[in-house]
Amino acid sequence: MDAKPRRDVDPDKYNARKVYIREDMIAATSVLQIRASEIRQSQINWQSYLQSQMITQRDHDFIVNLDQRGQKDLPDKNPDICADVFLNLLTHISKDNTIQYVLVLIDDILSEDKSRVKIFRNAKHGNVWQPFLNLLNRQDEFVQHMTARIIAKLACWYPQLMEKSDLHFYLSWLKDQLKTNNNDYIQSVARCLQMMLRTDEYRFAFLSVDGISTLLSILASRVNFQVQYQLVFCLWVLTFNPLLAEKMNKFNAIPILADILSDSVKEKVTRIVLAVFRNLIEKPEDQQVAKEHCIAMVQCKVLKQLSILEQKRSDDEDIMNDVDFLNERLQTSVQDLSSFDQYATEVKSGRLEWSPVHKSAKFWRENAARLNERGQELLRTLVHLLEKSRDPVVLAVACYDVGEYVRHYPRGKHIIEQLGGKQRVMYLLSHEDPNVRYEALLAVQKLMVHNWEYLGKQLEKEQIDKQSGGTAVGAKA
Prior knowledge:
mainly alpha; about 0% strand; disordered C terminus
C-alpha cells in the first residue's frame, strides 16, 4: 500500500500520520542507500591518518571508539567533541572513499535520533554549513548526494533556519541537479526537496531560485512515476502557502498536472495530483484566483478524468473525497462560467483550439474591448503564443483572434502593432502549415485594410474556388 499524504492539514504541523511509509522512502533514495550499504562494509585505517598527522590523537581516539569499538552513545556523551571531530575529518581528509565513509557515519548518527542535529548546528566550528557545502562541488557523485541528504536533515530538523546565502546556494544546487541529464541520484535530490519544502521560509527561497518552473518543466518532460510522484509532492507542499497557491498556475501548473492525471497508472500519482488541485482551490485567499483555477481545470478536461475515477471507485478514501470535492467545485464553476471566462482561461493555458467561442461574432462584438483589461494581459499572451508556440492549431487560432480583436476594437490595430503582434503575424505568412498561413493572411488583411468585409469575402471565395477546382481535377483524373 502506498503512503498517503494528508489533505486537510499543513504537513509541517502534522506528525501523527506519516506522509511516507518506509517503502516510499527507500524507493526515493534507493541508489544512494544501496551504495551506502556497500560503504558501511569498508574498513578505514584511522591509524595511518594519525601517523601522517592528518588527524589529531583526540580525533583518532573518538572515531575509533565510535566506529570500531561500537560506542554508539559517544555523540550524546560528547556532543562538542563529536561535531569538532567530524568537521575536522571532512575538512582535512581528501580521499574520496574515506569522505564517503565519514558521511555515511554522520547520516547514521542523525537517522538514529533526529535531535542529534543540534550536535552539528551548535558546533563551535565557525560556519557549520561551509564544510558540507564545499563537498557539493566534489567530483564524486555519492559524496555530493550524501552531503545533500545530510544538509537537508540539518536544515529541517532544527528550529533555527539555514542562513539565506547558504540556503540559496544549496537550493540552487538541488535545482541544477534536477536539470542534469541521466542523473542516477535524481530521486535522492527530489527527496531532499520534499523535506526542505515542508518549511514555509524555504518555500519562498525555492521560488527565488526559479525552482517552481524547474519542477514543472521536468514534470512536463515525462519522467518515471516515482520521480513524478516526488516532484508533484513538492508542488503539493508548496501550495499550502496561500500566496504560492495563487501563483502556481502562472507557471502553467494546471495543464501539466492535468496531463499527468490523464496518463497516470499509479494510484499514488493520481492521489497527489488530486491533492494539489484541491489546494489550488482551497488555499488561495483571493477567491477570484480560486475561480480561475477551477476554470483552468475545466479547460484542461479534468472533469472527464474525475468522471473516470468516479466510475472506478477506488478503495482509497482520500482519492474519492478529493474527486467528490473537485467535481462539486468544477461543476459549479461551469454553471457560473461566462463565455469570456472560458476564453480567458483558454488563452492563459496556452492551449488554443477551435472552440465555439472563437468563431462567435457575438462574442467578439461584446468582448473585444475586454482583451485590454489587466494591462492587456490576454493580448500580450496571444502575441507571446504567436512567437513561442510550435503547435499549428495554436498559431492559427491566435492569428484569428488577433484579427477579430482588430476588427471589433477601434484602436486595435495600433495596440497590436505596439505589442509586436503585427510583425509576428506577418512572419507566419511563410509558415509551413497551410492553415497557419491562411489565418495569418486573414489577420494581415484585417490589420492592413479598412474595407475588410469585402476583401475577406473575396479571400474566402478564392479559397473555396481553389478547393472546388482541386476536387474537380481529382474527379476528372
